[in-house]
Amino acid sequence: GPKHAISTMGMVTKLLLARFLAGAAPIAMVSTDNFSQNGRRFRESVLIVAKGWFEHGYVSQAFLDYVSNESRVSFPWSMIDRITPNPAQATEDSLEKQGFSDLGIITAKNGSHFSGFSNTEEVHYLVLEDNFPNGRPAFEKTDVILADRQTVEKADTMKVTACLNPLHTCLAVFGCLLGYEHIYQEMENPDLVSLIRHLGYDEDLPVVISPGVIDRKKFIDELIDVRLPNQNLPDTPQRIAADTSQKVPIRYGHTIRTYIKMGKDVSRLVFIPLTIAGWLRYLLGVDDKGNVFTPSSDPLLDTLQEYLSGISIGENDSGKIHIKVKPILSNSKLFGVNLYDCGLAKKVEEYFLCMLSGPGAVVATIHHFI
């Protein structure tokens, strides 16, 4: 019940209950969580708590009606984009030189990092659904882009399926394989820059719907030319590589499915299957020099690595590769489609085999295809 709310959503719902009891004034609950349809997910979470309380007699039907009515309590959707990695030691050192001595990095028991500062970038986007039942600040006078829900969804889809996130994940898996410690260092490698250019401009951009409020090509231009090379943004491929199994359905599967829906030739794709092959190579936990590394946390890591057990650098048996990777590439939950059914799995297998031929094979394979 409300008196014993300890979860974040429980406490938020408790605050809404207090507002209801104080006169039930309208309010907009704005989520800026960095995931798709954040307003919908926020609303569903609050309603789960509110309905549970109602069913157990803690709140009235009137309160449940209040939080369920979006003309009273709205949950606007948003697309937010600003790269904000873990706090960096270099930033802490710089701040100390400026006299700020109490902002140091704290590492929690679970490995999370906190500090009195954050590393972020000058570039930022906020596309916000204009749904405020009790009025709002004059966001139109700022950089906030106000739009309807459909436009917010298009802007988010543009970012996470085509113009940013797929390129980020590509750099993440190959960055780990090639021993990079920072994303900006990868942007000094012409082959990796060419790889994400091909991925973004040649394969993602042609099938993503324009949101209208943001120019798709300029968005990628800015990402590649300004944002990713920013040496003051010490993001790591290891951070971005976390939970990749949960990201591939959105960052690559969505585009593959869009090609199919549009009747386009999926077999012409090169850089999406190359990235997927790179992810398989990453899952082995051995870099391109043959050194063992620890892959980033992922809820399916143990399962995926078990499928690939017995595969090592120097493997040249295509039949063995097929048997090992089939449970992964045929998993429609991972990619939203069975990659064998759409004709991409064979390419992924071939590229994966190329990356296994020996030390330096990942670098050589990327160079060959770009």
Q: If you had to describe this structure to a student in words, what would you say it looks like?
A:
This protein has 370 residues and is mainly α. The chain is built from 17 helices and 7 strands. The protein has helices at 8-21, 38-55, 61-68, 89-97, 149-163, 165-177, 183-186, 190-204, 216-227, 237-240, 244-261, 271-283, 301-307, 318-329, 332-335, 345-355, 361-369, and strands at 27-28, 73-74, 78-81, 106-107, 113-114, 125-129, 145-147. β4 (106-107) and β5 (113-114) form a beta hairpin. It is globular and about 70 Å long. The termini are far apart. The mean pLDDT is 95.
Q: Let me know the average pLDDT.
A: 95
Q: Report the principal-axis shape.
A: globular
How is the largest sheet built, in terms of strand order?
A: 3-6-7
Biggest sheet details: 3 strands, mixed
Number of helices: 17
Order of helices and strands: HEHHEEHEEEEHHHHHHHHHHHHH
> Level of helix content?
40-55%
Distance between the termini: 58 Å
**What class, by secondary structure content?**
mainly alpha
Question: Which residues sit in consecutive blocks of at least 5 with pLDDT less than 50?
Answer: none
Question: What's the short story on this structure?
Answer:
The chain is mainly alpha-helical and about 375 residues long. The chain contains 17 helices and 7 strands.
